[in-house]
Amino acid sequence: MQIGKYYKVQVGAFSVKKNAEAMLEKLKKAGHDDVFITYSGTSGGTSARKITVGSKVRVKAGAKTYSGGSLASFVYFRDHIVKELSGKRAVITYGGTVVAAVNVDDLTLV
């Protein structure tokens, strides 16, 4: 996943800290220097994924544009790419063409 100018790679998600630490040591022994552990605070199988620039998303049924306008019916059935994010405002594209600005709460990750 591209984050700004960088690419992010996750190699695991563990509910037991000891297991995360064991994986960290395994990666270090394999020669990977820039490895670290983060804590997301989520549990129960919920995803810590969030919408970022470059995310593939779907627009929730009934959603409006960010300014309250209507969207064409086909918009709800296509996968879109997030081009810009500013607060709760997300600009989505389809095939490289800007479709609309929508509220990020009206998007789901695909």
Automatic annotation (TrEMBL):
Pfam families: SPOR. Residues 1-84 form the SPOR domain. GO terms for molecular function: peptidoglycan binding. InterPro entries: SPOR-like_dom, SPOR-like_sf. This is Sporulation domain-containing protein.
